[in-house]
């Protein structure tokens, strides 16, 4: 709570100091003290009124001060026990435990925070204890420090660079120095010209973003390890400052998704995500990536891990021969790419006409670069399209900036959605989505020939789509005329 008070009080004190230092201290110090005391009292009351019990059949949690809450989970429905410890918890030897039944709603979750590390490990072992099925156990993958070379190749790097510039301007604005910072930067870049100044800014942002991406990767994936534990449970352990232990029952696994972001794909890397029921969603999944089984690693390693996770000799994403999609799908991607460039350039053109010619120069310079890049990505996205089936898996691939090859178990498909826009109908294309209770909820075969897509859906789950299909009648056999022997 002291950290919260400092983070909130410093900007407030800086803003009030323009009026008077005495006024700033008079408002912020009592406010900070109130925040700390109120937070400590609230946490003390929460701990005093929180009790949990692990029985032979149920896990129960009683909590609440003014409003009492009682939550109970059946032990045979528990599917996940995730153990997390941020730096503050680690100082005191504590962890946060999240027990879930695989349901997406919060009603299927019990959170115990904090408990001791030994208690957290014991809860994980006890609640996920299953009778072994006799299959091999052991380590499927461990961290290779060389994988860090893929971190700067993601789009996290430019995003962090842009955020760093915004953060500098925000802090300067606290001290009423934003205009001075901008003027200082313009003076330093004046000698490089327009193009040179833009190049220096981009290079500086990328350098800062690369450093940030490396640090973020180390914090998230240090000490990474993927194990198969007794009873068929996959366990991912990782983290430098905040340690995480994420467990996944193989019974909930419905496939894998081999994801190749553009930068990683160009360097021959991919990551592996689990397609499983009941994975954490929403705010809980924004930081921890519960469904990622393997970070960006060499493609051969990703294929091996995908095969071992699915208990297959070869990964379905690698073994299948994907069918290409009609040429009309390429035209759709080229048109969408060019439309994206036009939408991005239009504000610059309008503002350039109304305000300054500099924006017009920026518009045509960026257009010269963006148009060929967009067309190249559109052609690459078309080449990435494909679908097929191998064994009990439906495999679909799409995307260029983020190419995804998903292998979905046919038994996990519970429905189909066939979607056609006006332009798709004219081109004879459709998007066929396999609905599932796992992962993203639906996986698409994009811009496939309508008949081909329906045949693939019917073959993956025979009978599910059959009542809605109209097949052309088979042609009648041609009968040869009987010669007149008379």
TrEMBL record:
Top-rank taxon: Bacteria
Species whose genome carries this gene: Pseudonocardia humida
Membrane-crossing residue ranges in chain numbering: 25-45, 150-172, 192-218, 336-355, 361-379
Name of the protein in its database record: PH domain-containing protein
Record has Transmembrane helix as a keyword: yes
Domain annotation YdbS-like PH: ranges: 48-126, 392-448
Higher taxonomy: Bacteria, Bacillati, Actinomycetota, Actinomycetes, Pseudonocardiales
Any Pfam family matching the protein: bPH_2
Keywords: Membrane, Transmembrane, Transmembrane helix
């Amino acid at each position: 709570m002291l950290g919260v008070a400092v983070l909130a009080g410093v900007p407030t004190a800086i803003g009030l100091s323009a009026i008077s230092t005495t006024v700033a201290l008079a408002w912020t110090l009592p406010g900070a003290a109130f925040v700390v005391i109120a937070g400590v009292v609230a946490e003390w009351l929460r701990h005093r009124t929180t009790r949990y019990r692990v029985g032979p059949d149920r896990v129960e949690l009683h909590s609440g001060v003014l409003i009492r809450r009682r939550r109970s989970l059946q032990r045979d429905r528990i599917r996940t026990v995730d153990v997390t410890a941020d730096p503050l918890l680690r100082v005191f030897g504590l962890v946060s435990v999240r027990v879930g039944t695989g349901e997406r709603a919060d009603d299927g979750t019990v959170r115990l925070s904090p408990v001791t590390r030994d208690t957290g490990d014991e809860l994980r072992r006890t609640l996920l204890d299953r009778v072994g099925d006799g299959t091999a156990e052991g380590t499927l993958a461990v961290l290779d420090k060389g994988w860090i070379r893929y971190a700067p190749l993601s789009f996290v790097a430019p995003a962090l660079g842009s955020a760093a510039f915004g953060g500098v301007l925000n802090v300067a604005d606290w001290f009423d120095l934003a205009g001075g910072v901008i003027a200082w930067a313009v003076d330093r870049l004046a000698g490089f010209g327009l193009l040179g100044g833009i190049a220096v800014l981009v290079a500086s942002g990328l350098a800062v973003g690369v450093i940030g991406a490396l640090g973020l990767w180390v914090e998230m994936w240090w000490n990474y390890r993927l194990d198969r534990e007794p009873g068929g449970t996959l366990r991912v352990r990782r983290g430098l400052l905040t340690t995480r232990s994420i467990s996944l029952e193989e019974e909930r696994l419905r496939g894998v998704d081999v994801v190749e972001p553009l930068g990683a794909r160009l360097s021959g890397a991919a990551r592996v995500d689990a397609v499983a029921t009941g994975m954490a969603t929403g705010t809980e999944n924004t930081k921890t990536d519960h469904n990622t089984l393997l970070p960006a690693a060499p493609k051969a390693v990703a294929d091996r891990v995908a095969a071992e996770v699915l208990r297959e000799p070869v990964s379905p994403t690698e073994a299948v021969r994907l069918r290409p999609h009609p040429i009309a799908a390429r035209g759709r991607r080229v048109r969408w790419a060019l439309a994206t460039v036009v939408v991005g350039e239009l504000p610059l053109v309008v503002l350039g006409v109304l305000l300054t010619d500099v924006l017009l120069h920026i518009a045509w310079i960026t257009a010269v670069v963006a148009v060929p890049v967009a067309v190249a990505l559109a052609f690459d996205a078309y080449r990435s399209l494909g679908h097929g089936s191998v064994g009990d898996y439906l495999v679909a691939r799409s995307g260029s900036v983020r190419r995804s090859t998903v292998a979905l178990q046919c038994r996990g498909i519970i429905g189909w959605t066939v979607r056609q826009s006006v332009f798709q109908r004219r081109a004879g294309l459709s998007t066929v989505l396999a609905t599932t209770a796992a992962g993203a909820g639906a996986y698409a075969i994009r811009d496939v020939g309508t008949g081909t897509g329906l045949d693939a859906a019917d073959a993956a789950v025979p009978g599910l789509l059959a009542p809605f299909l109209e097949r052309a009648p088979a042609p009648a056999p041609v009968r040869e005329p009987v010669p007149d022997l008379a």
